[in-house]
Amino acid sequence: EHKQEQPPRPVEAPSSDSNSRTITHEGRTRDDNILTLKTPSDVIWLSQFLCFLREECCEVFKASEQDVKERRKSKQIKLNQVGIRCRFCSHLPHTERTGRSSCFPSSIDRIYQSVTMMIREHFSICEEFPPDIRKKYVTLKQNTRKGEMESKTHWQNAAREIGMIDVDSEDDEEEGEGSRKKGIFFKDDL
Fold first, then answer.
1. CA–CA separation, 157 vs 174, rounded Å?
2. Which of 8, 20, 96, 185 lies deepest, with the highest CB count within 10 Å?
3. Backbone phi, then psi, for 85, in 5-degree steps?
């Protein structure tokens, strides 16, 4: 069976945000602060479904000022905090996306759980999911045994490999006294 190459994703114009920085991962440089969860060791530790999901369906991004404004007070995030989102509906305003389209895990060890919640509650109903990708998603998901989904340690190690770290600090100078910075950030942003 001949595997057809996916066309390269369009790269958006570089961000004019002063907090923007170039992210380089697996030889790909993106100036729009977006990359995939994919790492070279995924194929060793993960099912085909999870490899596909990490490369084709999920994006890692840094929270913009707009992201910070759109979040509910109870789920407040900080500028440049690392989030994971559905790459297919990320172009829509936050209010027009279906539930669980993005998440900001509180720590690296919560990334796996956050993505599994997106699998259960978002990807199957996302209206922006291209039909050919959805077909592959459904086929691979159906052919995945439960044991192949259990790979939490790899998810943590891969996040660190990409450059993510857990942050939990009080009185962040930029945020003001009494402010707490908690979540995942790229170590280069601290």
1. 29
2. 185
3. -145, 165
